């Protein structure tokens, strides 16, 4: 995309109503030019060649070719920033997570009923995500994305310690756009006996269970949605349940999860700052903080609080981030001790946990 020029968008959706609504919403912003629409992926393929869009919005369920199959072909042969338009259902959550694993930059959830009015309610979010996608980094998909097979529980290595020690480390990680895959990469690199990990990823409430299950399949650690009051144990990674904040509290010589249904922070619920501030207060220098790819600045101030509490801190570098908003904001604030490429973060977190 030429700097300063409007980003050129192609809208791919089988619904004429959705195509019309998205066209009107996106064209209302002077920084966006809607160059065309397509009712199915085969029409879209021809228009991509002819119109050379900077960004595509893509529905998942369409005639003639499934949106995921089209996305996989696109990211292998002609990678472009894609924003998925998905439904807020359990099936929609799993499909959207698959789309993100194939290389989609972000997604917007459309309501099941009264789509036209519902999309209008999301207008600001749609515009922001499309413009952010235009500046994002996409890579050619070089391998089929298949879940790893979990080890048989009878033969899988068990966490070395499930007792809490005050010298234990607690790793806190926050992410947003691009983070579903970045978190997968980090957790894939963590051994079964890694220190406890607490996570916040910006996702709609209906996505949290599917996301936790997806991460669990890819990690030697046990990845789960946190429940209120449960003890934080080594070898486990904890995500907030749908639409709620996750905080960590100290209970004597133990850390516990606290599920917080308070207001959104930085327009997010769950919010990274809520998690990080609680970890800074409860774990202090025993913690390690990391921010991965994401849009906005959620987590930057919380990471600074972790650093000021004596915790080592790091952010994903710009070159490997899909969107260097959150890690960039933290780095510019002076909250990060170092910035690292995604593929080195798990190794570094383990090294810091041993130091």
UniProtKB/TrEMBL annotation:
<dbReference type="InterPro" id="IPR011006">
    <property type="entry name" value="CheY-like_superfamily"/>
</dbReference>
<feature type="domain" description="Response regulatory">
    <location>
        <begin position="8"/>
        <end position="125"/>
    </location>
</feature>
<dbReference type="Pfam" id="PF00072">
    <property type="entry name" value="Response_reg"/>
</dbReference>
<dbReference type="InterPro" id="IPR000673">
    <property type="entry name" value="Sig_transdc_resp-reg_Me-estase"/>
</dbReference>
<keyword id="KW-0378">Hydrolase</keyword>
<feature type="active site">
    <location>
        <position position="176"/>
    </location>
</feature>
<dbReference type="InterPro" id="IPR001789">
    <property type="entry name" value="Sig_transdc_resp-reg_receiver"/>
</dbReference>
<keyword id="KW-0597">Phosphoprotein</keyword>
<keyword id="KW-0963">Cytoplasm</keyword>
<dbReference type="InterPro" id="IPR035909">
    <property type="entry name" value="CheB_C"/>
</dbReference>
<keyword id="KW-0145">Chemotaxis</keyword>
<feature type="active site">
    <location>
        <position position="298"/>
    </location>
</feature>
<comment type="function">
    <text>Involved in chemotaxis. Part of a chemotaxis signal transduction system that modulates chemotaxis in response to various stimuli. Catalyzes the demethylation of specific methylglutamate residues introduced into the chemoreceptors (methyl-accepting chemotaxis proteins or MCP) by CheR. Also mediates the irreversible deamidation of specific glutamine residues to glutamic acid.</text>
</comment>
<feature type="domain" description="CheB-type methylesterase">
    <location>
        <begin position="164"/>
        <end position="355"/>
    </location>
</feature>
<dbReference type="InterPro" id="IPR008248">
    <property type="entry name" value="CheB-like"/>
</dbReference>
<feature type="modified residue" description="4-aspartylphosphate">
    <location>
        <position position="59"/>
    </location>
</feature>
<feature type="active site">
    <location>
        <position position="202"/>
    </location>
</feature>
<protein>
    <recommendedName>
        <fullName>Protein-glutamate methylesterase/protein-glutamine glutaminase</fullName>
        <ecNumber>3.1.1.61</ecNumber>
        <ecNumber>3.5.1.44</ecNumber>
    </recommendedName>
</protein>
<dbReference type="Pfam" id="PF01339">
    <property type="entry name" value="CheB_methylest"/>
</dbReference>
<comment type="similarity">
    <text>Belongs to the CheB family.</text>
</comment>
